[in-house]
Amino acid sequence: MGQVLGLVQVDQSTVAIKETFGKFSEVLEPGCHFLPWCIGQQISGYLSLRVRQLDVRCETKTKVSPIPFCFICDLFFAEAIGMIKRTILQSSRIRTTFLNSIAWILSVQDNVFVTVVASVQYRALADKASDAFYKLSNTREQIQSYVFDVIRATVPKLDLDDAFEQKNDIAKAVEEELEKAMSAYGYEIVQTLIVDIEPDDRVKRAMNEINAAARMRVAASEKAEAEKILQIKKAEGEAESKYLAGVGIARQRQAIVDGLRDSVLAFSENVPGTTAKDIMDMVLVTQYFDTMKEIGASSKSSSVFIPHGPGAVKDVAAQIRDGLLQANPQ
């Protein structure tokens, strides 16, 4: 009914392109408008002023990168660990890791292809609505072409690591180029983001394996250092233990000597006519029988073969005296 009466409604955040007999007349703002169709006035189309987003995936290559020597060391370190643990782990898995890493190195030498995902937010300008409506037939393809052009001119100048680190610079370059190009067509570039940089799956796997190998090398170094510290502390503990044990044995023997001396002196005073030799022979006999008693009482003691009989004590005493005399020839 409204169209019959020449009434047209334009929604909010939208403008309408008015034509008179096929020629552009004006831009209609949101609201209700009267267009008498009988004199050739009509709506050619509508143009949204809302912000729209276009995601562009662009495949390109990065600059040739030198092979870091530490990466090669990490690779061979990982392979060495695989050889050592071949009986535990599947050797094919280690070889696959190694070959993937080598493939990554070769691909780096021959450029790494990556997929750059750019997100462009844009909108039509109300004061340039006629340019936006008439000058471009496919806005999305036009923006996509400019994004491809800028990314493929910028990313090949960067290493793979630099491409990740300079995402904001790439986005800024894309936005500046789009702003200059699209402003002539009545569009405003609100913001441009580089949301992702995706290397080839084989390259990503190889990079992950290289990082894992580097961490394994650090872990092995730290483990070796920890074992070294444990060995040092253990040796220091054993040395201290042996020192204290020696001090204890020395004190024990000193106490025995002091006890024997006191016994000899006390016995000589209480039993007149006895000599020190007689007393020592008697002490040795007593020690001999105590030793035999302890050996016989213990079920876990080892067999000890010594000259048996009380007379053997005299021979032991003679051997001790002879040793003392030889040690002190004076």
Automatic annotation (TrEMBL):
Position of the signal peptide: none
Pfam family, one: Band_7
Keywords tagged on the record: Lipoprotein
InterPro entries: Band7/mec-2_domain, Band_7, Band_7/SPFH_dom_sf
SUPFAM superfamilies associated with the record: Band 7/SPFH domain
All copies of domain Band, residue ranges: 5-211
PANTHER family noted in UniProt: HYPERSENSITIVE-INDUCED RESPONSE PROTEIN-LIKE PROTEIN 2, STOMATIN-LIKE PROTEIN 2, MITOCHONDRIAL
Protein known as: Band 7 domain-containing protein
Organism encoding this protein: Urochloa decumbens
